[in-house]
Write a sequence for this structure.
């Protein structure tokens, strides 16, 4: 009888432990998925920024070394047209139905950029999208930024307002992103585009495909650093708070070019993979 009672107690303890484990795992699934989606959105938009800058370098000759051969993003398949006499000035990057870039990503559709002036600062620039897709993610909406330039250190700083929708591939659906950011574009070595990086901080409201709204905060003390060399966020910390009162942080590391990040909920941490 005692052995039977002990066996029953062990079984009950196992069931309770297994139930707790399942609750702990299920409590982080949504945070992981949302963190992955928003990080992908952040990285796609940083890529687009650097791709547009590369197109401007090629067409305005901002860099003496500018050429398709030295490009990080642009191959010879997009058609780039620039109207310098329009007001505002206009540049269109047309990827057609399928264009594989130097970074291996497949793009289609158009990026349309207007600016008060592409070659002087400060300037106001607007970026919009027409049937634009990159690796199965459809980007729509607009990005407006006011750009100034530190000529001595070759750093451009932009105040950015984003109103973007991203349709993720397969059955993941569409998410909306509204952001107010400060973003610095740093060219550490002028002759090497892979040395470029984008440093961002500010606030983002991300409404994920499930309808849950998330407030995302990035401080200037721990900004996100995106490297062109690997097309990933490599450092910085983000705080997330949802409309249903859940919160967590993501730490992207100390500069290593990888797709790993550390998610922290309360006193628990978990390494996640972005892609």
């Amino acid at each position: 009888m005692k052995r039977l009672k002990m066996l029953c107690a062990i079984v009950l303890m196992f069931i309770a432990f297994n139930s707790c484990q399942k609750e702990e795992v299920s409590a982080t699934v949504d945070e992981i998925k949302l963190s992955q989606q928003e990080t992908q959105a952040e990285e796609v938009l940083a890529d687009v920024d650097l791709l547009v800058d590369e197109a401007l370098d090629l067409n305005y000759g901002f860099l003496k070394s500018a050429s398709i051969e030295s490009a990080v993003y642009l191959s010879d398949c997009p058609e780039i047209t620039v109207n310098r006499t329009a007001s505002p000035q206009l540049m269109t990057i047309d990827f057609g139905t399928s264009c594989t870039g130097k970074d291996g990503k497949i793009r289609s559709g158009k990026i349309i950029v207007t600016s008060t002036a592409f070659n002087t600062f400060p300037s106001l620039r607007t970026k919009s999208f027409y049937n634009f897709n990159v690796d199965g993610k459809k980007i729509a909406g607009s990005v407006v930024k006011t750009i100034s330039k530190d000529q001595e250190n070759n750093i451009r700083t932009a105040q950015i307002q984003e109103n973007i929708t991203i349709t993720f591939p397969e059955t993941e659906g569409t998410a909306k992103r509204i952001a107010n950011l400060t973003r610095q574009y740093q060219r550490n070595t002028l002759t090497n585009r892979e040395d470029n990086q984008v440093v961002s901080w500010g606030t983002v409201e991300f409404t994920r495909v499930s309808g849950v709204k998330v407030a995302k905060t990035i401080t200037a003390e721990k900004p996100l650093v995106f490297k062109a060399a690997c097309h990933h966020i490599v450092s910085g910390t983000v705080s997330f708070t949802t409309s249903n009162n859940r919160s967590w942080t993501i730490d992207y590391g100390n500069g290593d070019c990888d797709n790993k990040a550390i998610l922290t909920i309360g006193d628990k941490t978990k390494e996640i993979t972005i892609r």
In short: The CA atoms of residues 56 and 62 lie 8 Å apart. The first helix runs from residue 2 to 60. The longest strand covers residues 173-187. Residues 22-67+142-273 form one domain.
